[in-house]
Amino acid sequence: MIKAAFVGFGEVNTPKELIINKCQKAEESLKKEGLELLSVYPVTDDYEEKDIKNALDTLKGQEFDCLIVCIAGWIPTHAVVKITEQYRHKPMVLWGLCGWTEGDRLVTTADQAGTTALRKTFYDLGYTFKYVYDIIGLPSNSKTVYNFAKAASAAARLRSAKSGMAGYRDMNLYGTLYDGGSLKRDIGAEIETFEMLEIEQRYQKISDAEKQAVIDSAMSKWNFLKPADPESMKKAAGYYLAVKEICDERGYDAISLKDVDGMKKLLGFPPAPIFMLLADEAGLCTVPENDSLGTITQLIVKYLTGQCAFYLEFYEFFTDRVLAGVPDYVPAEVVDGDVTVMPAAFGELSEGILNVSKLKTGKVTMCRLCNIDGKYYMHMVTGDAITPRKWEEAGWTQPAPQLPGLEIKLDDVEYFAQNVMCQHYIISYGDNTEVIKALCDILHITII
After folding, report:
1. CATH code (residue 79)
2. 224 and 261 Cβ atoms separated by less than 8 Å
3. Dist CA 56 CA 7 (whole Å)
4. Number of structural domains found in the chain
5. Residue 302 contacts by C-beta under 8 Å, 6 or more apart in sequence?
6. pLDDT value at 322 more than 80
7. What is the pLDDT averaged over residues 334-359?
8. CA–CA separation, 321 and 343 (whole Å)
9. What is the model's pLDDT at position 271?
10. 351 — pLDDT class (breaks 50, 70, 90)
11. Contact 340/222 with Cβ under 8 angstroms?
12. Mean pLDDT across the chain
């Protein structure tokens, strides 16, 4: 549950029952969206400031991620600021309710007089906030308030989030690097690196019985187009257990492994099935090739949407779409039908267990966190994902596998291409731009 504080305000001379009724309706609309609320209302500008003191006493010592300042009528600024100043470190929503109609006339409690008196004050005081107002005759903006509260909750989670990374800078890529200091300062998340040797040492201690248990409980659910080498199955299960043990001990929510120059080159084992097990059985965000900001983008998307936040990389650009796919694996959550795998080899690399599943289609959001001249940006776009035409990547043993992929139709491929930040983008289903933008506003990340 996402927890927020809800404080409803109205002027002392406004009939109290009107303010209470409006705040109750707003409170209920947020609960229906899924918020857990710590509520106190009505707070007025009474001369002795009893309401202000009661609100502060109610909120004191309570845990919440967002403060919802609900303006149900005119309220002098000082009555609000005496509460908000105690929580200036929290993201806030300045939410103005609205009036109503009775017969042929409009009745108002001057809600937007209150919010317009406060908006610039909040800005001048340096608050991180979103200004929302309702309009007579239109639905409540409770969804917008909820999305901001969800983003505030995700921002709080990011402050203590950790991603694990075995090795660093696979293939000596530049686009997967990161700056640890600015990442911690601006986003809050931590990337902890560990040596691949630790994986191998732990792998050596995994028993055959433990490996077989994973094969029987998890890998047996996969649809094999051709039988896989039993030894490859055991390696996948064993390395999965070794990596999972590290993630469990250190509290990682995401993991990346040194892929080409690590697992494949040094251990002779393509890690696709390891990533599949880590995603599907351990519930971790996974991306290959030491993609640092890719893992952080995944955490952002997962915390906001609850989805697995899978990665795709670009293979071709067309006039109206991009072909995005993966040369290794996808989580079961995004597969349309059975998880389908087959043994296959690419070039001089050892044969591994390759995922060739079909992906779900529909509206998608593609995004990527990046750092430009020391400042963080989020490149984001929505598109319509359809089943791709038959395609293959040159280099696979013939007959070449049909790799998991999507053709994603975009409104402006050229604009996207001229701003593309990496070969890996993180995908979620649906239009999730509003809630991602809300998080970026809270963390002062510029949207591209």
Report:
1. 3.40.50.1070
2. no
3. 10
4. 2
5. 253, 285, 308, 309
6. yes
7. 86
8. 30
9. 94
10. confident
11. yes
12. 95
The answer on 233 and 361 residing in a single domain is yes
Residue 321: other Cβ atoms inside 10 A: 19
- Here the CATH number for the domain that contains residue 283 is 3.20.14
Residue 146: domain span: 2-158
Question: Does one domain contain both 353 and 244?
Answer: yes
Q: How far apart are the C-alpha atoms of 258 and 287, rounded to whole Å?
A: 10
Work out the pLDDT band at 348, boundaries 50, 70, 90: low
Distance (Å, whole) CA 85 – CA 88: 5
Contact (CB, 8 A) for 189 and 161 = yes
Q: Which of 120-124, 182-186, 310-314, 401-405 has the lowest mean pLDDT?
A: 401-405
Pairing of strands 352-355, 362-372: unpaired
Share of the chain above pLDDT 90, in %: 94
| Whole-angstrom distance, CA of residue 33 vs CA of residue 448 | 28
8 A C-beta contact, residue 68 and residue 30: yes
**Using H for helix, E for strand and C for coil, what is the string for the chain?**
CEEEEEEEECCCCCCHHHHHHHHHHHHHHHHHHCEEEEEEEEECCCCCCHHHHHHHHHHCCCCCCEEEEEECCCCCHHHHHHHHHHHCCCCEEEEECCCEEECCEEECCCHHHHHHHHHHHHHHCCCCEEEEECCCCCCCCHHHHHHHHHHHHHHHHHCCCEEEEECCCHHHCCCCCCCHHHHHHHHCCEEEEECHHHHHHHHCCCCHHHHHHHHHHCHHHCEECCCCCHHHHHHHHHHHHHHHHHHHHHCCCEEEECHHHHHHHHCCCCCHHHHHHHHHCCCCEECCCCCHHHHHHHHHHHHHHCCCCEEEEEEEECCCEEEEECCCCCCHHHECCCCEEEEECECCCCCEEEECCCECCEEEEEEEEEEECCEEEEEEEEEEEECCCCCCCCCECCCCCCCCEEEEECCCHHHHHHHCCCCEEEEEECCCHHHHHHHHHHHCCEEC
* pLDDT reported for residue 349: 59
| Inter-residue contact 259 to 170 (CB < 8 Å) | yes
The residue among 158, 181, 204 that closes a domain is 158
pLDDT, tens digit, 9 for 90 and up, residues 398-438: 777 889 999 999 999 999 999 999 999 999 999 999 999 99
Same domain, 289 and 428: yes
* Residue 428 · residue 372 · CB < 8 Å: no
